[in-house]
Structures are given as structure tokens and as C-alpha cells.
Amino acid sequence: MFRNRLYPQSGSGFGGLKLWIAVAIAGFSIFSYLSKGDYNEQTGEMQFVSLSPKQEIALGLQSTPKLIAQYGGLHPDEQLQKLVDAIGNRLLRKSHAKETPYKFEFHLLKDKKIVNAFALPGGQVFITYALFSKLKTEGQIAGVLGHEIGHVIARHSAQRLAKAELTEGLTGAIFLATFDPDNPGKMAVGQMAAVAASLINMKYGREDELESDALGIRYMTEAGYNPNSMIEVMKVLEAASGGGRQPEFFSTHPNPENRVEKIQATIKKLYPKGLPPGLEN
Fold first, then answer.
1. Disulfide check for 56: which of 10, 21, 121, 205 has CB 3.0–4.6 Å away?
2. pLDDT in tens, 237-266
3. Using CB atoms within 10 A of its CB, is residue 223 exposed (0-12), middle (13-18) or buried (19+)?
4. Could you give the count of Cα atoms lying within 13 Å of 265 in the half-sphere of its Cβ?
């Protein structure tokens, strides 16, 4: 009797109220997402983001110590760190990347096993020694750092957060609309919606990679590095798998098929008359 009073399924009142609440949640989620539009001058696109640049910077700074500790700390060789800083700052100083509000810092992590590079919102960029040690030229290092700078400037983390908030709100609405206390099995409908939402977000992740490649190509070329070095980076990462487990880089950076071909096509599109002379490898 207690359960029937709590969920009065015998009438249509609860079902109708439940539906109206679900519609309200879905509507608010969509409205909130669409209200977060912001034009990105670097990408030329209207984006939906949940954080302001200042909030992105603060979030990145707050998360940096934990990530450094997770990878065993910073690499102790100051000369190697200075090289990473010099290449990263050259990318910023000599390219359109300098026209953004972000405060970039570059960190060489001590980890000798995990082949990875990544960036936090706001400009904190990391590369593990495991990956750094496999790169043979400054141009290859510039390719990795330029790609990560691209993630920051394209605001991919802020975009993913906004999408996650939207899908969470819509999924919650579906759960509420389909929940039946007399038939909990119907919850599977909501679970399927959550799976579909994660697949949608994964697709955007792949697009993010290609966009970061394009921005990285632009920044490294403007800074005087040969963008074909980024192709060499892809080959280094492929070789790092040794036919076995993929490098961690490909776990945090979904690897679209024909990545090298897409990079080559981007270079041709950005520089149809050929690359500028005198670029460094």
C-alpha cells in the first residue's frame, strides 16, 4: 500500500506529471546548451562551451599537480625541459596562437613507459619522456606540441563538457519518462540512450583530432617548422605499438583511419602553392 501511495500508477496523474517534468528537463538542457554559444576566431566556428577562458585556465592550473604526480613527476633533466619550453614558446611567439588569451606552460613528464602527450584546458601541455625520447627532430616535437596547443585553442575540453552536460540532462529526462516502478526492466531504454550519447561524443572526439592536426600544422609552419614532421610523428606512434598494444596516446586521442593521408591533404589545402621555403625539420 505504501508503494502505491508513493507511485499512484492506477491513475494517469503521475504518468502525466512524470512526462511534463521529463519534457521540462529536456527543454532546459537544450536551452542551456544553446545559450553557451561562443565564436572561436582561431577555428572560425561557433562553439558551445561550458567554461570561460579564465575558468579553463583556472581548471587547468588546479589539475596540473595531480597529473604531474600521476606520471611520476617532472623529468629531472633541466636541459631537456628547456628544449621543450623553447619549441613550445616558439610555436606561440611566431604563430597566430599568440592571439589567444591562454597561458601556456609545457611540461616534460618523467614517465619512461607511457607514450603520451596531452593538454589541459587553459594551456597546460604535457609530453612524457617515453614519447619525447622517440622523437628525433625539433620539428617532430613541434608537431606534438602544436597538436596539443590546437586542442587548447579549439576549446575541445570545454566543448566536451558542454556536450556531456547536455547528454546527461537528456538521458535523465528519458530515464524519468520511461521509469515504471512496476516494471524496472524498462530502465534499459534509458541505458540505451546513455550508450548512444557516449557514441555521439566519441565521434566528436575524432573530429577534434583532425581539427587539432590542422591547427598544429598551421602553427608549426608559421613558426618555421616543416609540417611534414607531423606525419613522422604518426609513424613513430604507430611503430611504438610494435604490433601489440596501442600507445596511450591513441587512447586519449582517438586515431581516425588514414590519419597520415588526412594530414597530407590538410597541408595541401593550407598551402596549395607549396610550403614556404626554409622550413626546419
1. 121
2. 888 876 555 677 776 676 766 789 999 999
3. buried
4. 7
